[in-house]
Amino acid sequence: MNTRVLLRERPVGAIEPEKTFEVVRAPMDAHQLLEGDVLVRTLFLSLDPAMRGWLDDKPSYLPPVKIGAVMRGGSMGVVVESKNAAFAAGDLVDAQGTGGWQQYFVDRKARNLLKLDPGTDLLAAMGPLGMTGLTAYFGLLEVGKPRAGETIVVSGAAGATGSVVGQIGKIMGCRVVGMAGTDEKCRWLTEELGFDGAINYRTAGGAAGLDKALREHCPKGVDVYFDNVGGDILDAVLLRLRMRARVVLCGAISQYNSEAVAGPKNYLTLLTKRATMAGFIVFDYLARYAEARAQLQAWLDNGKLKFKVDVIDGLENAPQGLLKLFTGANKGKLAVQCAPLPSKL
Amino acid sequence: MNTRVLLRERPVGAIEPEKTFEVVRAPMDAHQLLEGDVLVRTLFLSLDPAMRGWLDDKPSYLPPVKIGAVMRGGSMGVVVESKNAAFAAGDLVDAQGTGGWQQYFVDRKARNLLKLDPGTDLLAAMGPLGMTGLTAYFGLLEVGKPRAGETIVVSGAAGATGSVVGQIGKIMGCRVVGMAGTDEKCRWLTEELGFDGAINYRTAGGAAGLDKALREHCPKGVDVYFDNVGGDILDAVLLRLRMRARVVLCGAISQYNSEAVAGPKNYLTLLTKRATMAGFIVFDYLARYAEARAQLQAWLDNGKLKFKVDVIDGLENAPQGLLKLFTGANKGKLAVQCAPLPSKL
What is the pTM of this model? Predict the structure, then answer.
């Protein structure tokens, strides 16, 4: 039997797990392996804010997930059966977006699989060494271009990407202030991850309160703003930009469930401050993933980079789990465990 | 007697000429010239959209004009009396922001005056060789960085800055499409200034009509958008950006009279298209004005750059004239003639 989660209908506004998705349990599709094919069992799924965008029937950097198709997503798995000389049963693999939300899948000619070293820490591979870590790395360093002594603000700071952004910022010698939605997350940022400050945007007291908190935490203003959330927080930070500031547009999770996106009404501070707002997509840096992973691994090894993974148990709980990203319930990387780990791990 | 126009009160929303400004006719302030001083008679005032921003009591790139002070503005004049060896009666000068809206003024130690060659075309000096021309030059070339073959869209295209932006775009080998508010302006752009296309945004048919017109005029999408207006037009163009497009924020005249600026709700296309939105202020390029003016003059001389000035007669009509910028009544540069030109011009 193969459990698969299909897109049932496109959400209007927020995802409704039972309505948006359909969990199907059925015998495996005939998966007669041809020469070069590999059968993989999914171990971990990655849950990411960008998934909300893939559900909309709108042009974007990837085509929308089709109705009735298996939900797209990053995952890590183990090879069950292989007709490909490069893979053997028991090998750990990064499915690199193929596979998605299903228990088993066949990668024809193993076109998309990336073989991982035996004993690889799959949670690190999905988190700080995966898409969210790479997004933090390239977004901050290549788009934000922070210089030592500058002030960085990151929103969604307790999330998988934001938490890595802030820690890289500290490694670069910057003052780092995070925005998060609970006091407990804020404490995690300052007490465990080394952020210089953290602002609980839910209790800050609206736009005026956010502005006051930003003035306190960023007395010189903001040189780099790494935005994962959009909306009111983006507007608040725009008002505090320094001359020649860089706003890195990584996401806008506060807006993903809205039918009409709230545009940043303070965008004209970009003009008066000669500042830049730039978008990027991590895929553009594919050729440099290895370099980034080596650096991130070195920081993990020397303890400068820490991470946390919130693991949900069971593929069938992925739809409900996805909601946690939008309610701010998770801390660090959010993942779904779909099968017990092979014993040799 | 000296006629001066003072800021009476800060406008909320649109400027109301009689309420916002006060025209005062009074004997000259005792203007005993000290060593180094120069007395200037204003010949032309420049009217510019940015002036609206100077009336608000908000932090910006220049301090707000004070209540009761002479309205700030660019102007060209003629020296009436000089105690400065560098200036003689009859010399033409660019007041470079000193002086403002008054018939006569003294520049202490001639700190701000720029002497112009005898016979200088003052209207060219205020238009394509003045702030608006320099804004077009640096904004397009240094921030927009157009490459031959790319598509440029410029809004406020029949204005002093926009009309120069489009013509420089053509000189650079780009496809240039202008946005303007009357069919007559659109004809001027395509028939006289060489734009490849022009869209009358008032009759385009709302957001859907603008989108259709942009698809027709920019079949490959938009590489550089030079924005003078903000609002719905900015949103429409954001949807048509190509990969790695550059949005040059020069102004947002559609929003200057609004208490709440409408943020660009389609700003997330910056993310999916890896595009950049950047602000700039022409003053930052001060060290390169001479280089830019030489190039602009060369283009004027060889006929590649054309311009038009809409001249309003009489300093006392400046407040009413300023409104033309916001109703879209002017074509090209808007100026006020404050005195007859010296006969030798």
Answer: 0.91
